[in-house]
Amino acid sequence: MSVDETTVRRVAKLARIAVEDHEVAKLKGELDAILAFVEELSQLDVDGVEPMTGVMPLSIRLREDAVTDGENAERVLQNAPAREGDFFVVPKVVE
Prior knowledge:
By secondary structure, this protein is mostly helical. 36% of the residues lie in helices and 4% in strands. The chain has helices at 5-14, 24-42, 73-77, and strands spanning 83-84, 87-88. Strands 1-2 form a two-stranded antiparallel ribbon. A hairpin with a 2-residue loop joins strand 1 (83-84) and strand 2 (87-88).
């Protein structure tokens, strides 16, 4: 598969990339190479390959999902610019 210069200009416009006339030929070659690689990938036999979200098997340690009071309001609020009791005071942003 190959793209023409009109397609290169259209893709650049859709991507909101300013492309000068002298750059179109170079971009056409790069897009052709990308499309050739995608065609090469589509020829691979992936039957029996499980879909994956990453290449490294990772397990994430999760803490217990529990609501707590922070257990130390004074320490939590010690650097607050403004406070009212055990709460942060923030500017009103919605009328």
